[in-house]
């Protein structure tokens, strides 16, 4: 969906800004809003570009930088940590060849830290796009990654 | 209604809706603050002003808490002091605290606070993540490594100026105050008004210091170094040097600048008078020949930058006159050079301005015969001029008064009030009225256009027609005016726009600590200067008339057009 079409779904009032940003970014394959898009969005909602940048940079779910088709978020809070989230992170890093904050060269995966995912009783947990995976082990992670890779081919 | 409370066990009575901070101040106790600034919104971010309220669990921020009946406040208990110390130490741990290498040294609120709290070592290790410095424009330097995230600049830029270049990006520990997309100020957003630099408590936004360039020129025997002084400086330089806000120092400032080594000390008021003649003629021409109306003034580069960036559609409405600063430079390197038989290339023109945007204006490529020979070589702010005088050890208060040099020394009261909101309009009306109606004004004072109201209106009778005029100051008000023009809804024929609150007396280069009260004091003094002048109408300035007969010819004629007028360019990429 083009940005212009998407914007028309919202009244041109700044209270819809966050909703519009989130929906638009979710619909986009690279999960980001670019500078030119921010310029357009700011104009549409009659707010300044600084304001939109401020909002985008505030929420970790919004990004100005392109991300992979699948954004993997790993919880960095204590309950996951004591349940060996470190080994999950290691597995993700070696399997994907990237560190948190980076995107694979094929544009398929991005890796990021996040706050608590609300799955403390099933730690460690990760989230891939809208889906949450719990009670993870390194082997489970490998299997999940393979699934996503196959989906692509 | 009055409220009774106790501050440090002393009975205190203050009007209701007073903050604890103000109540303490009224009773001679200064609670330290950092994010708070008198004219700005209270966002109580920093918590330095914390106090204890008996019966309340945590500490309360005194800048945002109102007094209540029977309240008991303790402003300096060990617990309070300890909290203030911890906050300050944390700020310093994340700060490029190299004070002697900072322009704000001795003028910095964080430094003062650390001093008052007696912090001579820091319990916390340095965690500063060094970020690049933005010095990509001629006016301002932004050094994020010194920013304490108080939010004052955001408030000024967003709410007073309505520009909103600066915003808080990211959150928590990663917060960074920045223009959008991590860009430079120069990337087509900023007007260089410098209001942010005037409220920043630390050295995170400062004007580009050019005092060294001026010292070098002054010591270069090949250079003929002259200086011009803007209208607003005569009521603010004294303050910069420790005198009361609004002290009029016209004669002393001439003497002081002579001591620094300037060959000639001239008055920008002279070219302010000239601006009235050129701009007044342009207005009359536009009105009588069906030209583009309304016409706005053009002496404020903050306004020009704003219009070029955000309202490219209305550039035709801006008078083509250069600002008085630029007219001066152009005449210094032509008329004055010829008259005194000096090679224009050796003339070095320095301006002392209340303004950071003037630094940008002077460097515009339109402003000179060639890129290498600009009309004005260096612009110093009031603060930089004060710095040079301190460096020279000038004992300002003891100086005897001196007169400005000729041929740019005879000026009028009309020119003096250029430094305040409404002043350019009033000066223009005094002249345009008398020229068009061919009769003298009964009363020279146009009181409707005076004062601090954001947008002021007046009507004048010009040749049997009633013409509406308006005056706007601050860019938030300029925006209202610009929108009207853009939408073809402007009811006015002539509009004065100044970018800074109160006009140039409240300019971004004026002494630190400028608040409403200081602006009103400076403003009152400019009107006092006006009343005391023997001449109060620009068209009665004999040296302006001589300039036309000896050199320029007539207003708007070929040479005037070449030297005194300019063009504007849309600035935005989108
Ligand atoms: S100079 Fe003026 S426009 Fe630019 S950031 Fe500062 S306050 Fe905003
Ligand atoms: S730049 Fe200055 S005014 Fe702006 S937030 Fe930082 S310290 Fe405060
Ligand atoms: S109002 Fe005066 S000080 Fe402010 S930007 Fe304009 S010219 Fe400069
Ligand atoms: S001065 Fe009160 S919270 Fe900063």
Strand order, main sheet of chain B: write it out: 2-1-5-3-4
The CATH architecture of the largest domain in chain A comes to: 3-Layer(aba) Sandwich
Q: Class of the largest domain in chain B, according to the CATH hierarchy?
A: Alpha Beta
CATH architecture designation of the largest domain in chain B? 3-Layer(aba) Sandwich
Instruction: Write the element-wise H/E pattern of chain A from the N-terminal end onward.
Output: HHHHEHHEEEH
Low-confidence stretches of chain B: none
The shape of chain B is: globular
- Quaternary structure type: heterodimer
Could you give a quick summary of the protein structure above?
The complex is a heterodimer of chains A (153) and B (574). Chain A is an alpha+beta fold and 153 residues long.
Descriptive account of the structure:
- The complex is a heterodimer of chains A (about 150) and B (about 575).
- Chain A has a four-stranded mixed β-sheet with strand order 2-1-3-4, covered by helices on one side.
- Chain A is elongated, with a radius of gyration of 17 Å.
- Chain A folds into two domains: about 5-60; about 70-150, Glutaredoxin (3-Layer(aba) Sandwich).
- By secondary structure, chain A is α+β, with helices and mostly antiparallel strands.
- The model of chain A has no long low-confidence stretch (mean pLDDT about 90).
- Chain A has seven helices and four strands; from the N terminus they run H-H-H-H-E-H-H-E-E-E-H.
- Chain A has helices at about 5, 15-25, 35-45, 50-60, 80, 85-95, 140-150; strands at about 70-75, 110-115, 125-130, 130-135.
- Chain A starts with a helix and ends with a helix.
- Chain B has about 575 residues and is an alpha/beta fold.
- Chain B has three domains: about 1-75, Ubiquitin-like (UB roll) (Roll), CATH 3.10.20.740; about 90-205, Alpha-Beta Plaits (2-Layer Sandwich); about 210-565, Rossmann fold (3-Layer(aba) Sandwich).
- Chain B is about 35% helix and about 15% strand.
- Chain B has helices spanning about 20-25, 80-95, 110-115, 150-160, 195-200, 210-220, 235-240, 250-260, 270-290, 300-310, 325-340, 355-360, 380-390, 415, 425-435, 475-485, 515-530, 540-550, 560-565; strands at about 1-5, 10-15, 50-55, 60, 70-75, 140, 165-170, 175-180, 205, 225-230, 265, 295, 345-355, 370, 375, 380, 455-460, 465-475, 495-500.
- Chain B has a five-stranded mixed β-sheet with strand order 2-1-5-3-4, sandwiched between helices. A four-stranded parallel β-sheet of chain B has the order 11-10-13-16, with helices on both faces.
- In chain B, a hairpin with a 6-residue loop joins strand 3 and strand 4.
- In chain B, helix 9 (about 270-290) crosses helix 11 and helix 9 packs across helix 15.
- Chain B is globular and about 75 Å long.
- The N and C termini of chain B lie far apart (about 55 Å).
- The interface of A and B includes residues 51, 52 and 64 of A.
């Amino acid at each position: 969906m083009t940005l212009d079409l998407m914007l028309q779904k919202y009244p041109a009032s700044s209270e819809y800004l966050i909703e519009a940003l989130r929906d638009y970014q979710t619909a986009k394959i690279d999960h980001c809003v670019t500078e030119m898009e921010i310029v357009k969005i700011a104009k549409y909602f009659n707010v300044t570009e600084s304001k939109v940048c401020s909002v985008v940079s505030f929420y970790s779910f919004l990004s100005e930088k392109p991300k992979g088709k699948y954004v993997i978020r790993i919880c960095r809070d204590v309950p996951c940590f004591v349940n060996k989230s470190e080994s999950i992170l290691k597995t993700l890093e070696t399997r994907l060849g990237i560190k948190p904050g980076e995107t694979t060269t094929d544009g398929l995966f991005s890796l990021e830290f996040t706050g608590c995912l609300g799955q403390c009783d099933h730690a460690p947990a990760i989230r891939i796009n809208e889906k949450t995976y719990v009670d993870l082990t390194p082997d489970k992670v490998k299997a999940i990654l393979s699934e996503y890779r196959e989906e692509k081919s | 209604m009055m409220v009774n409370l106790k501050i440090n066990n002393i009975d205190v009575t203050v009007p209701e809706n007073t903050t604890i901070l103000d109540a303490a101040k009224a009773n001679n106790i200064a609670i330290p603050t950092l994010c708070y600034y008198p004219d700005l919104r209270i966002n109580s971010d920093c918590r330095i002003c914390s106090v204890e309220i008996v019966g309340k669990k945590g500490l309360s921020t005194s800048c945002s808490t109102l007094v209540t009946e029977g309240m008991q406040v303790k402003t300096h208990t060990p617990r309070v002091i300890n909290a203030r110390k911890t906050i300050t130490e944390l700020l310093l741990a994340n700060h490029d605290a190299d004070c002697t290498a900072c322009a704000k040294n001795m003028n910095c609120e964080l430094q003062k606070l650390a001093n008052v709290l007696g912090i001579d070592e820091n319990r916390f290790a340095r965690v500063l993540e060094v970020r690049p410095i933005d010095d990509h424009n001629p006016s301002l330097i932004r050094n994020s490594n010194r920013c304490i995230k108080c939010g004052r600049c955001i408030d000024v830029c967003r709410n007073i100026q309505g520009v909103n270049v600066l915003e808080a990006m990211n959150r928590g520990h990663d917060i960074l105050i920045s223009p959008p997309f991590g860009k430079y100020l120069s990337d087509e957003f900023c007007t260089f008004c410098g209001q942010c630099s005037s409220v920043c408590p630390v050295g995170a936004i400062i004007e580009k210091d050019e005092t060294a360039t001026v010292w070098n020129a002054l010591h270069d025997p090949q250079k003929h170094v002259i200086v011009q002084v803007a209208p607003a400086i005569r009521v603010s330089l004294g303050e910069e040097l420790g005198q009361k806000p609004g002290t009029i120092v016209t004669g002393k400032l001439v003497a002081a600048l002579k001591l620094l080594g300037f060959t000639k000390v001239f008055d920008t008021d002279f070219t302010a008078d000239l601006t009235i003649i050129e701009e007044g003629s342009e207005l009359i021409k536009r009105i009588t020949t069906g030209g583009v109306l309304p016409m706005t003034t053009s002496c404020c580069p903050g306004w020009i930058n704003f219009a070029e960036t955000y309202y490219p559609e209305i550039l035709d409405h801006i008078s083509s006159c250069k600002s008085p600063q630029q007219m001066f430079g152009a005449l210094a390197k032509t008329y004055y050079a010829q008259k005194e038989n000096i090679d224009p290339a050796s003339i070095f023109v320095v301006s002392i301005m209340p303004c950071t945007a003037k630094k940008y204006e002077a460097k515009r490529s339109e402003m000179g015969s060639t890129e290498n020979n600009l009309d004005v070589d260096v612009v110093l702010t009031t603060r930089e001029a004060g710095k040079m005088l301190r460096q020279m050890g000038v004992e300002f208060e003891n100086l005897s008064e001196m007169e400005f040099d000729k041929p740019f020394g005879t000026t009028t009261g009309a020119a003096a009030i250029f430094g305040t909101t409404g002043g350019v309009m009033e000066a223009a009306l005094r002249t345009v009225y008398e020229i068009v109606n061919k009769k003298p004004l009964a009363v020279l004072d146009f009181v409707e256009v005076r004062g601090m109201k954001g947008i002021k209106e007046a009507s004048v009778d010009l040749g049997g027609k009633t013409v509406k005029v308006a005056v706007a100051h601050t860019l938030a008000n300029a925006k209202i005016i610009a929108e009207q023009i853009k939408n073809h809804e402007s009811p006015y024929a002539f509009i004065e726009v100044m970018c800074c609150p109160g006009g140039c007396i409240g300019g971004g280069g004026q002494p630190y600590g400028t608040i409403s009260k200081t602006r009103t004091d400076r403003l009152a003094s400019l009107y006092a200067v006006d009343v005391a002048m023997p001449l109060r109408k620009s068209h009665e300035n004999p040296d302006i008339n001589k300039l036309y007969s000896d050199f320029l010819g007539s207003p708007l004629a070929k040479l005037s057009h070449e030297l005194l007028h300019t063009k504007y360019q849309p600035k935005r990429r989108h």
